[in-house]
Input
Amino acid sequence: MTTRSIPRPGERGIGRLLDADVAGLLLLFVVVVAVFGAAADNFLTGSTFASIAFQLPELGLLSLAMLMPIISGGFNLAITFTANLSGLAMAGILHAGGGESAGVLFILLGIAAALATGAVVGWAMGAIIATTGAHPILVSLSTMIFVRGLGEFLTRGGDISGTPQAVQAIGQGTLLGIPAPLIVFAAAVLVWHVLMSRTRLGFATRMIGSNLEATRYSGVPTRRSLTLVYTLSGLMCGLAGIVMLARFNSVRVGHGEAYLLITVLACFLGRVDPFGGFGRVLPVAIALVILQVIASGLNLLGANQHLATALWGGFLLVIMIARSVWAGRSLHRMIGRR
Amino acid sequence: MADPAEPGETIGLLELEHVSKQFGGVHALDDVRFDILPGEVLCLAGENGCGKSTLIKIISGVHQPEPGAVMRFAGQPMGTMTPGAARALGIQVIWQDLALFPEMSVAENIGFERNLGARPRPVNRTAMRGAAQKILDRLGVRLPLDAPLRTLPIAQRQIVAIARALVGEARIVFMDEPTASLSQAETDALLAIVRRLSAERIAVVFVSHRLAEVLDVCSRVTVLRDGKLVGTFPTAGMTQTRLTELMTGKSFDYAVGQRDLAAARPVLTVENLSRRGEYEDISLTIRAGEIVGVTGRLGSGRTEFALSLFGMTQPDRGTIMLDGKRVRFGSNRAAIRAGVAYVSEDRLQLGLVQPQSITDNTVIAVLDRLLGPKPLISGGKRDALVDDWIRDLGVKIGRKEDAVSTLSGGNQQRIVLAKWLATTPRLLVLDSPTVGVDVGARAGIFAIVRRLAEQGLAILLISDEIPEVYFNADRVLHMRDGRIVGEYRPAATAIDAIEEAVHA
Output
C-alpha cells in the first residue's frame, strides 16, 4: 500500500461537506417531506415553513448545547433549566428597566446577563467534571436540580413576562422574510461547525471523548478543554434562553423541559457517537430539521395531540432501524467506528 | 525442557496435513502441516498475520478448512469440527484476552462451563468450589476462590483461564501470547505450570513473541510465514537470531554499539532524584546522540522514573537538568515544551487515541504549529505534516482518515514516534517500545531509533527484553526496587552477564 496524494472525490471543498452522513440525512429529509407532502395537501406551504422556522431554533440551540458534551464523552442534562435561568436573568433585568418599555441599554445588559448566567453554570459544571473526574451525568443532573430549584425559588413557581418590542422581534420577527430565530440558529450552527471542525478545542473535544488519558499524555490541556466545553454548552443554553424568552414574551422555569431527551435524540440521529469521540455539527442540524418537519407534519395532519406524540416516536424508531440497516451495508462508514 | 515424548511413541496427539484456508481469495493458510505429541510443549511462531490464529481457529472448530485437509486426533479422523466438538475432544484455547468474567468469582470463572446449559438449573456452589480447588491444587497454585476476578492481577487471571481449560479434561491447550503482560517472575511461574501440564501428558501449544522463553520451554517450534509452513524445528541448537530469520525471512545483523560519546554535550542530567515509594536516588547523564538503556523487572521503578522525567509526576528530591538548565515540570505539557517526549509502554490506553484517525493521532501534540489564520487549524499544514512523517518513518497505511487502531502494532508505534518527533524533542523516552510489535517490525523501529540518535537526539530506552537494550543502547542501566544497581557497556560485557544480574 502506498500513501495516496491525489485527493479523492469527497475530500475537498463542498465535496467534503456532502459526504455519506450528510447525503444520507438529506435523502431522509427529502423522503420525509415527500411523505407528508403527499399525505396532507396543505403541507408544502409557506405557513408550514414558517411554523417550522419559528419552532426549530429553540430545540436546535439546545441540541447544540448538548452536542459538545456528548462528543467529549459526557452529557449535559442541565441544558433546559440553564436556559430557563438565563432567560430569567434577562427578564429580571428587563423588568428592572421598565418591562415592556425597557431601553436599549437594559436590553443589551439583559442579553449579556443571560449569556453570562449560562456560561457560569456551564463553567461550574465543567470545572467540577474536569477536576474531580466525576461522571458528567451525575454532575449535570445535580446541576440541573440546583438550577431548577434556584429558578423556582426566584420566581416562586410563576412566570415573568413582558419584554420590549425589540426583544420580541428576536423571537417573532423576520428579516428579509426569514424568521429571526432561524437566523440566530443558522449563525450558531455555523460558529459551532467551525469550532468543532477547525479549532484546537474542537479537536481536543473529540480526542477526549475517545480517550481522555491518552489525550492528556499527548500534551493536550484536557482539564481546560473540558471546562471550556461545558462553559460553551452553558453559553449556548444562554442563547437558547434569550430566544425562548423572546418568542413567548415570558419565562417560566420548566419551559422546554421536554426538549432535553429530544436534543439527545437529535444528536444520535445526526450520527454523533453516543460514547463520545465522533460527531459533527452539520448532520445534527439536518437531523433537527427532519425531527421538526415530522413533528409539524403530524400536527398538520390533524392527528390527535397525544396520538401525534406516539406517531412521532414510531417514526423515529423506523428511522433508527433504517439507519442501522443502511450503515451496516456501507462498509466505508464502519471504518473508524467502534 | 526434556523430551516429553516417551521412547517408541509414534502416534501423535494431533496431526494435520494439507490444511488451507482462504478468506475472500486471500490465502490465510496454504497447505500447512502440523503435529504435536501427547505432553509435548510446542511453539507456534510467526509474525502477526502469518496464519497462527487461523490455524488455531481451525483446530478449535471456529473455522472450517478448505476441502482436502486431513485432520487426525489421537489417530482418529476428526471430521467436521465445531467449537463444541473440539472441546469434547479436549482441545482448549486460551485467547490473549482470556475471555473471563471480571465480576464473577474465581471459582465461578473456573467452573463456568459446568454451569452452561439451555435449561436453568440450580448451581451447586460447594461442588463448584471443590472442583475449582482441585484443579488449582493440580497446578500447584493458591488463589482466593471467592474473590471477584477483577481484583486479581493479570498473571493470576491467566492461571484462572488455564484452570478453566482444565475443567474440560483438556488434552491439548493452546495459549495465545500468555506472557505478553507478565513480569519475568510471573512468566517463570507460568512456565512452571506449563511444565506441570506437560508432565500430566497434556500437550501445550505456545504462541509467543518472546523468543527467549519460547526456546526455554518448548521442545519444538513450528514456524509459519505468510500462511505457509516454513518448517518445524527442534529448539535444541536454535538461537533467537535464527528463529527471527525464519519468522521474517530476512536476516538481521546484530552488533553492539561501539560509539564513543564521552565528548558529546550532556542533554539530560539527573542527580539524586527520588520519589517516595517509586524510585530512589537516581543519577544519570544522557549525552546528545546517546541511547541509554534501562532494564529491570516490572515494578523496578523504571516507568515511574520515566513519568517524572515527562512531568506526569513530581519528584520529592533531586534535580533534573535539561541542556544544562535546571527544570521542574508541573505537568507533561511543560515537559513537552522543554523538549521531552515520552512513548508510553501502554500504546492501547495511553500511547494513541485508538479509535481516532491516523492524521489526528499524528498531529495531536503539535496543534499549535498548524494554525492557519489564528485560531483555525490549517488543513493544508496538517496534511503536509502527516504526509512528511508517514513517508519519513515508512509507515504503511491505507488512508490517513482510517482509525489508527486499524494499523499493525509496528505501524502504530511508528505513528507514536511521528507524533513525538513532530514536537522536535531533545530527549526521547521510549518505554517498552516493542510491546505487541512483531519481531520483524521491531528491527524497523530500532532502525529509526538509531537513526534519531545519530541525528543527535538523546534517548532513554526502557525495556524488560535485555537483548533489546543490549543491542541498541550505548550503555545499559539495571534498575531494581527503584534504584540503579548496575551499569554495563554492551561493548565490554557479555549479554549473559546482564541477564544473570537482572534475573537473579
Observations:
- The CA atoms of residues 10 and 17 of chain A lie 8 Å apart.
- Chain A has one domain: 45-323.
- The radius of gyration of chain A is 21 Å.
- The interface with chain B takes residues 1, 3-5, 194, 198-200, 203, 206-207, 210-211, 213-221, 277-278, 335-338 of chain A (CB under 8 Å).
